């Protein structure tokens, strides 16, 4: 069986270096953490009718499982990045409001 | 943090068993239209038996949605190749 392992490389203006995202140590399955139906639906007794089939033991079957792991890792990484960006944005707004307040005081 | 340039980039390199499989995946993904080309571009190329998907967008949010959709489609393509490659043609009758 041939080992087929996908890999991703991320670049952004605030990143000086390229960030590599891999599939992780495994075990790899087609059951993704970030691609399932929501917990709310599951708790309400809902079932995922689009649940993927299990990966076969072939190279391509294992590639499909690894792609699911990579998808999870990319989703987690980019969600963290989005949270960070949101925090920075709210800090900027806070700073602007405070700066405006100082300007008003100075003009009085 | 969003900017007008497509400066948020993610490149995925997916190895296949053969160049033919990588080309099939590339040709299957390529026709999918990108709706907001000023906010996102996705380029598919092959290098030997590798499929390379390059996502470039105005923000992390934009590329995250596109990447997850493409990977969902790619997994279906991989499953189809795994299931049908090498099998003989079969005509189903009623």
UniProtKB/TrEMBL annotation, chain A:
Cell compartments where the protein resides: Chromosome, Telomere; Nucleus
Primary location class: nucleus
Gene Ontology annotations for the cellular component aspect, listed alphabetically: chromosome, telomeric region; nucleus
Ranges of biased composition (kind: Basic and acidic residues): 87-99
Any one GO BP annotation for this protein: tRNA processing
Keywords: Activator, Chromosome, Nucleus, Telomere, Transcription, Transcription regulation, tRNA processing
Region of interest called Disordered, as start-end residue ranges on this chain: 87-108
Keyword Protein transport in record: no
Entries under InterPro entries matching the protein: EKC/KEOPS_Gon7 (IPR014849)
Domain of life: Eukaryota
Family according to the record: Belongs to the GON7 family.
General function of this protein: Component of the EKC/KEOPS complex that is required for the formation of a threonylcarbamoyl group on adenosine at position 37 (t(6)A37) in tRNAs that read codons beginning with adenine. The complex is probably involved in the transfer of the threonylcarbamoyl moiety of threonylcarbamoyl-AMP (TC-AMP) to the N6 group of A37. GON7 likely plays a supporting role to the catalytic subunit KAE1 in the complex. The EKC/KEOPS complex also promotes both telomere uncapping and telomere elongation. The complex is required for efficient recruitment of transcriptional coactivators.
Subunit structure: Component of the EKC/KEOPS complex composed of at least BUD32, CGI121, GON7, KAE1 and PCC1; the whole complex dimerizes.
Protein name (database record): EKC/KEOPS complex subunit GON7
Annotated source species: Candida tenuis (strain ATCC 10573 / BCRC 21748 / CBS 615 / JCM 9827 / NBRC 10315 / NRRL Y-1498 / VKM Y-70)
TrEMBL record, chain B:
Identification of the protein by name: Transcription factor Pcc1
GO biological process, one term: tRNA threonylcarbamoyladenosine metabolic process
InterPro entries reported for this sequence: CTAG/Pcc1
Gene3D superfamilies according to UniProt: Alpha-D-phosphohexomutase, C-terminal domain (3.30.310.50)
GO cellular component, one term: EKC/KEOPS complex
Pfam short name (any one): Pcc1
Family under the similarity heading: Belongs to the CTAG/PCC1 family.
């Amino acid at each position: 069986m041939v080992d087929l392992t996908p890999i991703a490389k991320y670049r952004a203006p605030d990143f000086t270096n390229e960030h590599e995202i891999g599939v992780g140590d495994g075990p790899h399955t087609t059951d993704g953490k970030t691609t399932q139906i929501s917990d709310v639906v599951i708790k309400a007794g809902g079932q995922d009718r689009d649940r993927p089939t299990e990966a076969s033991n072939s190279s391509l079957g294992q590639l499909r499982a690894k792609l699911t792991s990579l998808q999870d890792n990319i989703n987690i990484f980019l969600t963290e990045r989005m949270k960070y960006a949101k925090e920075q944005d709210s800090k900027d707004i806070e700073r602007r409001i405070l700066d405006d307040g100082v300007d008003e005081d100075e003009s009085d | 943090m969003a900017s007008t340039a497509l400066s948020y980039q993610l490149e995925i390199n997916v190895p296949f068993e053969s160049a033919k499989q990588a080309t099939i995946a590339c040709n299957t993904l390529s026709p999918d239209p990108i709706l907001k080309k000023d906010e996102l571009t996705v380029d598919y190329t092959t290098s030997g038996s590798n499929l390379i998907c390059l996502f470039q967008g105005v923000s992390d949010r934009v590329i995250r949605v596109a990447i997850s959709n493409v990977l969902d489609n790619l997994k279906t393509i991989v499953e189809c190749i795994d299931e049908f490659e090498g099998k003989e043609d079969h005509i189903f009758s009623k």
